[in-house]
Amino acid sequence: MKQTLKKTGHDKADRQMNDVFLQFTAKLVFLIVIMFSFNLFFAGHYTPGGGFVGGLLAAAALILLLIAYDKKTLQRMVPIDFRLIITSGLTFAVGLPTLSFFFGTPFFTHQHTHIEIPVFGDVALHSAVLFDLGVFLTVAATALLIIVLVGEAEN
């Protein structure tokens, strides 16, 4: 493939070959890191982890794709507005404790219930999970937005 690229006049044949390997590896590592991020998020209520660490790992996985590709390709792969994700994350993280405060309970008092999910059966649902979801979304989107803005400033 390198020879074909050089014959057609591409001077950056070595760089293009390295990009192919980096891009393939980045996709594979992205899946592993994002799954581990979700694992840390869901395990965080009972063990170390949670929204903050899970959000940082999710941002790291997306930053890996940003390094392997470019900003336009990342926006096509993950078509989300980071500012909207930050806003929704802050709404969860701040709104949930405030909502419990308005119902007469102390500020960070969490509630829980059990719901029936067809495949999983009886599942406990805590309001702390929704708070952690807000932290997860806020941290992941903020870290990604900072990296993208710093990258744009250098260009």
UniProtKB/TrEMBL annotation:
It is found in: Cell membrane. Keywords: Cell membrane, Membrane, Transmembrane, Transmembrane helix. It is a multi-pass membrane protein. It holds the Pfam family MnhB. The chain crosses the membrane at residues 20-43, 49-69, 81-103, 123-150. Residues 22-144 form the Na+/H+ antiporter MnhB subunit-related protein domain. PANTHER family: NA(+)/H(+) ANTIPORTER SUBUNIT B, NA(+)_H(+) ANTIPORTER SUBUNIT B. Belongs to the CPA3 antiporters (TC 2.A.63) subunit B family. This is Na(+)/H(+) antiporter subunit B.
